[in-house]
Design goal:
The complex is a heterodimer of chains A (442) and B (318). Chain A is built from 14 helices and 17 strands. Chain A has 442 residues and is of the alpha/beta class. Among the domains of chain A are: 158 residues, NADH-ubiquinone oxidoreductase 51kDa subunit (Rossmann fold); 69 residues, no CATH class. In chain A, the strands form 4 sheets. In chain A, strands 1-14-13-17-15-16 form a 6-stranded mixed sheet. In chain A, strands 2-8-7-4 form a 4-stranded antiparallel sheet, with no helix packed on it. In chain A, helix 3 packs parallel to helix 5, helix 4 packs across helix 7 and helix 11 packs across helix 14. The relative contact order of chain A is 0.15. With 318 residues, chain B is mostly helical. Chain B is built from 14 helices and no strands. Chain B is globular and about 80 Å long. The interface between A and B is large, with 65 and 36 residues.
Chain lengths: 442, 318
């Protein structure tokens, strides 16, 4: 079975919510919709206090290049345009809306009927993705319309769909594949068209045999889509690793997937593309896993963007167990620990993962015994132990020469370190310093 | 706003720890220890106990009274040093007090003087062993010969290891089987190649060592001695006997693979292993000592920082 060639680890999979079907979570009484839910500049609010909005109405417009439109996830009255603290405690511009009823924009097709045919051209598809505020749902929330506007002189040969879901605990991609395989395949076909009809590969890890069989059967009824089962190994879903696993191509240091003729999109994004293009529905909902070993029940939800972490927790499990160590947005390997549970969820949030104190505790750091396990685990072929020493010594130029910027922050080095050294933290710090120094030089 | 505890990702760890690695190495040394007890009797056990106890004690004393830091003897690394030191000396009663001196040198000079575990450039057990070899040449080369399977009383009279005997031009009557099972003279932990290989297999299985150093070490020694033997079978030992006797097996599997003092990249480990094998054969055949494993490994230990600098892992897509 295929996989990437170098490094990687196999953390406990813990896909305990994989049997839970996607439930619809009701909307609260008020939402705050952040204006930067994507990589890049925040969108500019285009509604005012007191204005009535419908579900799917544009409330934040992308005016910068690297930006995405933001739509109202609810219907109601705009309370204020202000700032709101996000999940990590940072104030962000936001539109507050008091929810009244559930009135959708007329153009949105809310029927369950699957529309396969799409007559749009590549340029029209990209325009539609931009209009509907679609961003990558694999974690980086990169605006999709920018990704599919291939720069001149570059050419895509393959569309690689990331359905690896290599992070422990997460099951939202799995559930969306099981429940919406046809829509996903339509979405993939649309993205193929956007790239000029290239071949599409869907990489799925072999710990999801049901998804592999459902998707393989569905893909057979479409043109140019092939499902590739992958050996379970983390970080399979990292862009460069996935491209290597699926196509054998390698994206060089400092380059983008398109430089190797590939474009990578998450399987959830493909579903969002389908809804945006075929159903006129902007990206206003997340499919989100609520999971944790110490929770009384496991869930997958369809949640309106803007719903707060606390509302999700209250609706799904009542309250957090007393033994809660951390609440994580994302998986245990690359997810971010949430500081502020009153924060609204944003595009691309894949989970509310609750881990217990014991699981969350870090062991005390001991001396490096130069075992080299961090090097063996590094999927980029780097030397984490060396970065640790260089960063601590403030030797950032040397760290740059040793390619610290190649690091994808997958966390394999810390995960496998017997001395429990906070390698990933140190490297993250080093990367920021190196970037700042490089920017200062320019 | 109720604030949660946070940290950077990743939020889970493999549960691997230095302590677990070291105790597993100790476990891997048990077959060779049992073999030594079976062949050399309770003397072997006595030497091992004294060696381990003094290594642990010296580390504890140094940490408590000189460095004034919390003790780390629980991580098992001093036990590894103690066992390896014991494995490198003859199993005789006269070694008991000598091995205490060896332990002091190994832990005090070989390890703690550099700042403790992880910072020592040389394998501490070998530092101790070479110190003893130079300081107590007679006691260090008076070998008991294993006789029978469980000889509880010991005759220390007969003298030489196969290597020393060969150097004197009088090796006879030692078969491959004797060498594999340990029915030969030698330091207590090195006599049975089989027991060592069982321990090494366990370490490989638990991914504590990789194949690179042992294979490069033994392979180079085998190849080089085969060439010499092919040139002149009278003057040079046959290659199989070369790798089965003396310290090559113990050195290649347990001492050259010491994480702290060997290179980190696989390419560096191959060079390191080849260097150890080459130097061992050179010292054995043209040096003053019949055995050269300790010196070979120590010399290659000194090259490790350079190998770490030169041998980089292969970068992704380069």
């Amino acid at each position: 079975m295929k996989t990437f060639k170098m490094g990687g680890v196999h953390p406990e999979e813990n896909k305990i919510s994989n049997e839970a079907p996607i439930e619809v979570m009701p909307v609260g009484s008020q939402v705050a919709v952040l204006m930067n839910q994507h990589l890049g500049a925040p969108a500019t609010p285009v509604v005012q206090k007191g204005e009535r909005v419908k579900v799917g109405q544009l409330i934040g417009e992308a005016q910068a290049f690297m930006c995405a439109n933001v739509h109202s996830p609810v219907s109601g009255t705009v309370l204020k345009v202000d700032t709101c603290k996000d999940a990590f405690g940072q104030p962000k511009p936001a539109v507050y809306i008091a929810v009244e009823g559930d009135e959708w924009m007329e153009e949105i097709d809310r029927t369950a009927e699957v529309k396969r045919e799409c007559a749009l051209t590549a340029a029209e598809i990209v325009a539609k993705l931009k209009e509907k505020g679609v961003v990558g749902l694999g974690g980086a929330t990169f605006p999709t319309h920018i990704k599919y506007s291939i720069p001149e002189g570059k050419k895509a040969d393959y569309l690689v769909v990331n359905a690896a879901e290599c992070e422990p605990y997460l099951t939202s991609d799995l559930r969306v594949m099981l429940e919406h395989a046809e829509e996903i395949c339509v979405g993939i076909s649309i993205l193929r068209t956007a790239l000029g009809g290239v071949k599409a590969y869907v990489g799925i890890e072999s710990n999801k045999p049901q998804a592999i069989s459902v998707m393989t059967q569905m893909a057979a009824t479409f043109e140019g889509i092939e499902v590739v089962p992958l050996r379970v190994k983390y970080p399979q879903g990292a862009e460069k690793q996935l491209i290597q696993a699926v196509t054998g191509r390698r994206v060089p240091s400092g380059k983008l997937p398109i430089d190797a003729g590939c474009v990578v999109s998450n399987v959830g994004t493909c579903f969002a593309v389908y809804e945006a293009v075929q159903k006129n529905k902007p990206l206003i909902e997340n499919i989100l896993t609520v999971t944790g070993k110490e929770l009384p029940s496991q869930h997958n939800y369809l949640v309106r963007i803007g719903t707060t972490y606390n509302e999700i927790i209250r609706h799904s499990i009542g309250e957090l167990p007393e033994t809660t160590g951390k609440v994580i947005s994302g998986g245990t390997m690359m997810g971010k620990a949430v500081v502020n549970l009153d924060a609204p969820t944003v595009k691309g949030n894949a989970s509310v993962l609750v881990i217990g104190e014991r699981e969350a505790r870090r062991q005390p750091e001991t001396a490096c015994i130069r075992c080299g396990k961090c090097m063996d685990a590094c999927p980029m072929g780097l030397e984490p132990y060396l970065f640790s020493a260089l960063v601590k010594g403030g030797r950032f130029e040397e760290a740059r020469v040793h390619n610290i910027l190649d690091c994808i922050e997958c966390g394999c080095c810390f995960f496998s370190c017997p001395a429990c050294k906070p390698l990933t933290d140190e490297i993250r710090l080093g990367k920021n310093k190196v970037r700042a120094l490089m920017a200062a030089k320019k | 706003m109720n604030l949660m505890k946070i940290s950077g990702s990743p939020h889970v760890h493999s549960d691997e720890s230095t302590r677990r690695i070291m105790w597993r190495v100790n476990l891997a040394l048990v077959p060779a220890l049992l073999c030594a007890i079976a062949y050399f009797g309770l003397n072997a056990l006595l030497v091992a106990v004294v060696s381990v106890a003094s290594c642990v004690l010296f580390q504890w004393l140094i940490e408590k009274y000189i460095l004034k830091v919390p003790t780390t003897v629980g991580d098992g690394s001093a036990v590894v040093t103690g066992l390896l030191l014991a494995f490198n000396v003859p199993a005789t009663v006269s070694m008991l007090w000598i091995v205490v001196i060896g332990a002091l040198v190994a832990i005090g000079i070989g390890k703690m003087a550099f700042g403790g575990l992880g910072k020592n450039p040389f394998n501490p057990a070998l530092v101790g062993r070479v110190f003893l070899l130079i300081s107590f040449p007679v006691q260090m080369t008076t070998w008991p010969v294993a006789e029978g399977l469980f000889p509880m009383q010991f005759d220390v009279a007969s003298g030489a290891t196969p290597l020393a005997a060969f150097k004197e031009g009088q090796l006879a009557g030692v078969s491959y089987w004797d060498a594999l099972l340990g029915h030969i003279g030698g330091s207590m932990g090195e006599v049975s190649a089989l027991a060592i290989l069982i321990g090494a297999a366990y370490l490989l299985w638990k991914k504590i060592i990789s194949w690179h150093i042992p294979v490069a070490f033994i392979g180079t020694a085998l190849a080089m001695s085969a060439v010499l033997w092919w040139i002149d079978p009278q003057q040079y030992m046959d290659p199989m006997m070369t790798i089965l006797t003396g310290g090559i097996m113990l050195g290649a599997c347990f001492m050259a693979t010491d994480m702290v003092t060997s290179p980190m990249a696989k390419s560096g480990q191959l060079i390191f292993g080849c260097g150890c094998g080459l130097l061992t054969i050179v010292i054995r055949n043209w040096g003053a000592y019949p055995e050269g494993v300790s010196f070979a490994i120590l010399i290659m230990n000194s090259v490790t920082p350079l190998l770490n600098r030169w041998c980089k892992p292969r970068r992704f897509a380069s």
